[in-house]
Amino acid sequence: FQMPPQHAKPWPLAVIFMRVNNNFIKFWTFFSLLILFIFQYCKSDIHSSNEDLIFDSDTSIKNENAKKWFEKGLYYVRIRDYNWANKCFSKADNLFPNSPIILNSLGNSFYRTGEYDKAIESFDNALKIDSFFIKTYSNYGIALNGVGKYKDAKDILYLGLNKSPAHLNTIDRSVLNLNLAYTYHNLNNDEKALQLLDSAKQGLPQGELFNRIINAKLKLIKPLPVQK
Fold first, then answer.
1. Could you report the per-residue pLDDT of 7-53, keeping only the tens digit for each?
2. Could you tell me if 136 and 104 are in contact, meaning their C-beta atoms sit under 8 angstroms apart?
3. Higher pLDDT residue, 151 or 29?
4. Residue 141 three-state SS
5. How do residues 166-224 score in pLDDT, each as one tens digit?
């Protein structure tokens, strides 16, 4: 004797609600984590992975349209699209000329796209407008190193380093010394480069810049010869 097949009982509304609710919570958790990741990426520090190019995020630009174009340029820097960054910074420069902040970032983006002459011209113009815009000395020195003008790079970096202490904070001084160390390394003077790296880490709290200085120093220290 066989029992007749039993039909599945319908799910209670409470069970259906709990299953839908759990799926919604999982989806919302994933979505929230995705938004948090994008936000953290976008607000990350705007520095090169290989050089200490500094894109100034100071938005003390009085022309609102120029400010918007400048901020668009910073966005393209974050996603490493330097061609579009060039266009945005150039537009900002046309709308609000003679701004060292804009010229500094324009020089950096030109350097990133391999337009070294335009980069050097932008940095030079920025310093003619404001000789105390310290970040530009570091960027100018990097650009000159990039085209093999090591002695000119050394002179520019020392100009920035010799500015009055009122215009030179600890991080500015450390970045200038770090880039001077790279310059002396290019000039085949690693002894001086090591001295500058020691100066660069003085008074600097441990962090990304501190670690970069230590790593640079380790690369310059020659290993001892093998004892026979």
1. 445 555 554 545 655 665 555 554 454 444 343 333 333 333 334 45
2. yes
3. 151
4. helix
5. 777 888 888 899 999 999 999 999 999 999 999 888 878 778 878 888 888 778 765 44
What value does the mean pLDDT of the chain take? Answer: 78
Q: Residue 172: which of 206, 209, 144 has the closest Cα?
A: 209
The two three-digit tokens of residue 99, written as one number: 């701004």
What is the rounded end-to-end Cα distance, in angstroms, of the chain? 95
Candidates 150, 98, 158, 105; CA nearest to 128 is 98
| CA 57 vs CA 53, 71, 95: distances in Å | 12, 8, 18
CA distance 28 to 202: 47
Three-state SS string across 33-77, please? HHHHHHHHHHCCCCECCCCCCECCCCCCCCCHHHHHHHHHHHHHH
The predicted model scores a pTM of 0.70
Of 159, 137, 147, 148, give the one whose Cα is nearest residue 187. 148
